[in-house]
Amino acid sequence: MKKQLLILSLGMFLSAFSFGQPLNLPVDFENTTPNYYGLTDFGGNVSEIVVDPTNPANHAVKTIKTAAAETWAGTTVGGTVGFATPVPFVPGSTTMYVRVWSPTAGTPIRLKVEDANDPTISVETETLTVLTAAWDTLFFNFSNQAPGTAPINFAYSYNKASIFFNFGTGGAQAGEQTYYWDDMAFVQGAPGPVVDLPVTFEITPPSFYGLTDFGGNASEIIVDPANPTNHVAKTIKTATAETWAGTTIGGTVGFPNNVPFAPGSTIMTVKVMSPTPAGTHIRLKVEDANDPTISVETEALTTGVNTWEYLHFDFSNQAPGTAPINFANNYNKASIFFNFGITGAQAGEQTYYWDDVYFGIYTDANYLNAPDVNLAIYPNPVENYLYFRSNTTFNKVEVYNVIGARMKEYVNVSQNIPVGDLEPGIYFIMVTDTNGKNGVSTFIKK
Predict the structure, then answer these.
(1) Rounded to an integer, what distance in angstroms lies between the CA atom of residue 126 and that of residue 112?
(2) pLDDT digits over 194-244, tens only?
(3) Is 194 contained in some domain?
(4) Residue 19 phi/psi, 5° resolution?
(5) For the residues 349-363, what does the mean pLDDT come to?
(6) Do residues 338 and 418 share a domain?
(7) Distance between CA atoms of 396 and 90, rounded to whole angstroms?
């Protein structure tokens, strides 16, 4: 009998040892111990841990929301006991993220956290998928609770999480759908955007860009209606909009770096599609995110209707009645105003699209004449920094003068190179990508 008890105790010990440490965030689903993650389905979900269909070196959860699933079908991590340590929510740190692969874009994904010992204590929030049949990192800010659910209470302990795909729609309506998810984690500190110029709206999730409307605008990041491989911002200036209705990039925190204005380098570019007649006033404002009394505003006029065009905003020509540019100030936050000075009541509801917010003069002509290398350089002429727009990091960037002497060499370049110390004149630039392909162009140093 003692031998049997010893064997039983040893088995329990080994089982506990093989389980590893108690489950906690972040959760990456790479532990192969059976039932380690305590996945528990309810309402018609069927989940299992599988090899990531897009990456055989990774594991992820495959969740089928069946044709018989309820609107509230979901899956819990951690079973009935939840995490060993509560999610460390505090004021200013209320966000979690989950990587999600969804078969459809615009699908509501809900995340719920609760007290594993008291199901009456919970908080829920939602976000929408942006991509179709691709991995996307979704951020869930629990300070924005879902309608009809309890707000976050920092006195409570939240140590259990459940995820709900296509929340609010039953399987009978949507049909059977398969989702994948991975890397559930807590975001330390405010999840504020880390966006910087140039802004191309190609980074997910959309919350990355911190678009913030005011005065009657309504904005979202969508697939470009003219190009399904591109993402753009769609801004509706509603029928109740003020003359000053606008949209800010970067939320309240702005850009991590200042717009690099300098004497002779005061232009920003925005690609815009306007539904209103040519000559519509588009205003761009930059300011100090920490001091709203420091700002400079300027305007450009549209030249076309329902067609993409690059508008150039020269902040050395400030809008009437606004402050002139001051190169001693910090400008790290930008807002755009469509049909500035006209109310929604006067113009009626209008929809604008915008993309590609750059420092300097940027046009499609900035692309290098090298079809094998996807690269644009700007501004040209350049004062201090030569910026790149590319979907790759270049192994090497070299700058030569007109007699062929190499002046600069950089490795692993993705955004810009400093050229402020070059003498005024014409230079050649050669880039080499990770496949060894080259592109060559020229630029003028002012």
Answers:
(1) 9
(2) 587 778 887 766 767 888 899 999 999 998 888 887 889 999 999 999 999
(3) no
(4) -70, -25
(5) 87
(6) no
(7) 44
Whole-number Å distance between alpha carbons of 145 and 153 = 11
Domain holding 181: CATH number?
Answer: 2.60.120.260
Cα four-point dihedral sign 329, 335, 336, 341: negative
Q: What predicted TM-score, i.e. pTM, was given to this entire model?
A: 0.50
User: How high is the pLDDT of residue 432?
Assistant: 77
C-alpha separations of 353 from 58, 74, 157, 220, 291 in Å:
37, 36, 43, 10, 29
Please give the average per-residue pLDDT across 173-181, as a whole number: 97
Q: Kindly state whether residues 345 and 393 are assigned to the same domain.
A: no
Question: Is residue 307 pLDDT above 70, yes or no?
Answer: yes
Domain boundary among 137, 160, 187: 187
Do the domain assignments include residue 80?
Answer: yes
Q: If you compute the radius of gyration of the chain from its CA atoms, what whole number of angstroms results?
A: 26
Find out whether 62 and 75 touch, Cβ atoms under 8 Å: no
Q: Which domain holds residue 229?
A: 206-359
Q: Residue 383: which CATH number?
A: 2.60.40.3080
